[in-house]
Task: inverse folding
């Protein structure tokens, strides 16, 4: 199946700094990528839908100025957590649609962010 | 709107026991239904799917049948293994192209 990678797999940062997480579709072009946040022992919360070449669509309650999403190419989307605080610590997961007839969605392995 | 209600866990079973995780959904139109599995510290992997009523998805001994009359997509496995220990998510893809709606997840632990 199609492969989606995320980098880094884990990151620890100080409060007030910004962190960038990359999501790449390795063997297919993804016009649409999704960013999720997952709290411990909870389900995935969709943060935003990212379309190549256009602004991301954020879900209600997600601060667009805090979680900057850039979908610069058909294989890369980035999520930047700006001025991170301990409450931003979480597991961030991206996914990408293959498009086409089957339009399957494949998930990255996730990025564990810890803000000290 | 579209939503998924999933049986709350955790579920603890002995090896070779029968597994059922209930999932029901609410959706307009004709959604596709999915089961994803998440192993500790990892992202989600698609386990199986069904795209229309009465379809049965199956993989690795797991099965689920799309029941439109009961709006359900229950996950079953006849004989679980320790390696099946993970969190299982039921999901649907409804009217919005590509957007998935997830259930809360069910933690399964299988003891030897």
Result:
């Amino acid at each position: 199946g199609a492969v989606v990678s995320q980098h880094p797999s884990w990151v620890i940062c100080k409060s007030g700094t910004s962190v960038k997480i990359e999501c790449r579709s390795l063997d297919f072009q993804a016009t649409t990528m999704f960013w999720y946040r997952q709290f411990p022992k909870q389900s995935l919360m969709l943060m935003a839908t990212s379309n190549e070449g256009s602004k991301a669509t954020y879900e209600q309650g997600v601060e667009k100025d805090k979680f900057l999403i850039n979908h610069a190419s058909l294989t890369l989307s980035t999520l930047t957590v700006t001025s991170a605080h301990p409450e931003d610590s979480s597991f961030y997961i991206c996914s990408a649609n293959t498009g086409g007839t089957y339009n399957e969605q494949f998930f990255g392995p996730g990025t564990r962010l810890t803000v000290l | 709107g579209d939503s998924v209600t999933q049986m709350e866990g955790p579920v603890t079973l002995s090896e070779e026991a029968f597994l059922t995780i209930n999932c029901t959904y609410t959706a307009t139109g004709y959604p596709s239904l999915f089961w994803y599995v998440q192993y500790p510290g990892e992202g989600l992997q698609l386990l199986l799917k069904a795209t229309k009523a009465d379809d049965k998805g199956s993989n690795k001994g797991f099965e689920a049948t799309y029941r439109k009359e009961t709006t359900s997509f229950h996950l079953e496995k006849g004989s679980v293994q320790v390696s099946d220990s993970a969190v299982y998510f039921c999901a649907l893809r409804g009217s919005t192209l590509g957007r998935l709606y997830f259930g809360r997840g069910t933690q399964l632990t299988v003891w030897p």
